[in-house]
Amino acid sequence: MRILESGMGELLQPIDLDEFRQWNREKKAHGLVDKLMTEQEAISRFVYDGCYIGTELYGTVRAPMSLAREVVRQGKKDLRVAGQGVLELDLWLGAHLVKTLDITYIGLEVYGTSHCLRREVESGRVEKVVEWSNGGITWRFKAASMGVPFIPVRSMLGTDTFRYSAAKVAECPFTGMKVCLIPALILDVGLIHVHRADRYGNAQIEGISGFAFELARASKRLIISAEEIVDTEEIRRYPDRTTIPYYLVDAVVHAPFGSYPGEMVYMYERDEEAIREWVEASKTEEGTQAYLNQYVYGVANHQEYLELVGWERLQRVKAAVEGR
Amino acid sequence: MAAPNYNPTELMICLAARQIPDGVTAFIGTGIPMLAASLAQKMHAPNLIPVFEFGGTGAILKRLPRAVGEGRTFYRGLVASGICDTMETAARGFIDYGFLGGAQIDPYGNLNSTIIGPQHHPPKVRLPGSGGANDVGSLCWRTIIIIRHDKLRFVPKVDFITTPGYLTGPGAREAAGLPPGTGPYRVVSTLALLDFDEETKWMRLLATNPGVTVEQVIENTGFELIIPPNVGQNEPPTDEELRILREEVDPEQFYI
User: Among partner residues A61, A106, A164, which is closest to B67 by beta-carbon distance?
Assistant: First the structure.
């Protein structure tokens, strides 16, 4: 295949598919093993300084917020991050934990640009930034999940998003057309929040699945947090609902309101006031650290965080769920 | 002249909504596109099928989504799938319209939402990045750009091409490998409605907004626009559009 152009961005995570296969053969339990543990245990066992890590979905929607806060609490640093996020990645940036970024979107959605991203990237504290589109980064997970080194797509072509990526443009050997080759991205650790899972890691997601399917299959270690832990009989009753099968999963964490202050569709709404609190606090370095002191370092775990937020508020977001 | 009974954001939403025909599929991003799609659905386009990148297709936009993944993006929807499905659907040619915004736009409709300044890293100003914009601008048939109109935004050359317009001019998209027949279709701004000349792919003034002169549009654009002999005038928002927008689309006043 003729390579016509190469993006100048660095491949932040090497693509070693045979090592991935070996890993999946040797380091993952192929039988049913109880993986239920706390956030504290899961993060300390599987997330390490300098690891390549990604989260799903978006900080205000079904994001693994209790896991993201635990990463901050344990001060896991020099993280190489798949940058598609809102509040969860903002917390890591605010806590100065991010060293390099494959970025597609980090922002505050309706509230605009991320202040933490700006401070960390403009100061150069985030050392390398490689650009992708949302489709692009998800197809990177998809390539890894297929066990192939790249996928040809028709996005990113002709733009600076391509020029500052680590993708390549090639001539298709079958049609002669130009295609953008998106390299596989194998994550050291993936974090996903789901509606329910059993203790082995069989997980169900309701509503849109975002990129959970792809990210789960592209991760060497996968930590699942779930609103509800169910009996495996429940999984066996509707196996068609299993988005993430047990063998992909290394840890299962019971995290009710695990996406708070974001929403969990059909279960609770987002807490606008709490989201605005972060938007305001994150505007300054001092505000950011004060927020982290109060809501992350100042509480020992997710349970204490929920008590700090208060059950009255949590009941309110639950009651706000709209009928369908 | 009496002060208008609407603000610039409301005007852009109404103008954008009018660009969406009934019975089409449209990729909808955060912000004004959501309001425009919702208004269109409640006015003239009940069969508009909104597609949200994280998997929501065919929602009834009863209440305004605040994020492209939230429950309201598939409220009474037809499909709740994932981002690969929606992007690949666009790649196969099923998505008629895509809505885009940005911090900068150039005469060929190229958009920047990545950085401001000459250097990529570290940049003078870091913006959120492409998100789904590059994919939407690459793969949807017609993209509609919604952007405030001033010289900081309408620039001769964007600092970074996040999302492809017509790139360097006629034939450039196809030469880069992008699907033929795609590209920017309209620009809805606070001052005017614009499109792109069929031959040169250069931005052209179609119609000015109520109370805005052609000269004002020219003064607020950082490059030379094509000004045809007959420039139209956009109708102001109707009472019905404003009522639906304020009472039904965004009663919480998230955006307006």
Answer: A61
Is residue B2, in this structure, part of any structural domain at all? no
Q: What are phi and psi of B20, to 5 degrees?
A: -95, 115
* Residue pointed to by tokens 């849109």: A208
Task: Answer yes or no: is B254 within a domain.
Answer: no
Domain containing residue B177: CATH number: 3.40.1080.10
**Structural domain span for residue B174:** 8-249
CATH code of the region A3-14+31-319: 3.40.1080.10
d(Cα A227, Cα A235) in Å, to the nearest integer? 15
Q: How far is B135 from chain A (nearest CA, A)?
A: 5
Note down pLDDT in tens along chain B; length 256 residues.
Answer: 568 899 999 999 999 999 999 999 999 988 889 999 999 999 999 999 999 999 999 999 988 888 889 999 999 999 999 999 999 999 999 999 999 999 999 999 999 999 999 999 999 999 999 999 999 999 999 999 999 999 999 999 999 999 999 999 999 999 999 999 999 999 999 999 999 999 999 999 999 999 999 999 999 999 999 999 999 999 999 999 999 999 999 998 888 8
Q: How many domains does chain B have?
A: 1
Residue in A104, A122, A266 closest to B130 by CB: A104
Helices marked H in B44-171: 83-91, 133-139
Q: Please, which residues 49-78 of chain B have a Cβ atom closer than 8 Å to chain A? A: 52-56, 63, 66-76
Which positions 97-116 of B are in contact with A (Cβ < 8 Å)?
Answer: 110, 114
Q: For residue B88, give the chain A residue with the closest CA.
A: A135
Query: Residues B213, B219, B225, CA angle at the centre, nearest 5°?
Result: 85
Contacts with B75 from chain A: Cβ below 8 Å: 322, 324
Peptide bond into B152 cis (omega under 30): no
Residues of A in contact with B173 (CB under 8 A): 158
- C-alpha neighbours within 13 Å on the C-beta side of residue A258: 29
ipTM score over 0.90, yes or no: yes
Q: What residues of B act catalytically?
A: 53
DSSP per-residue codes, A147-214? T-SEEEESSSTTSHHHHTSS-EEEE-TTT--EEEEEEP--EEEEEEEEEEE-TT--EE--S--BTHHH
In a domain, B72, yes or no: yes
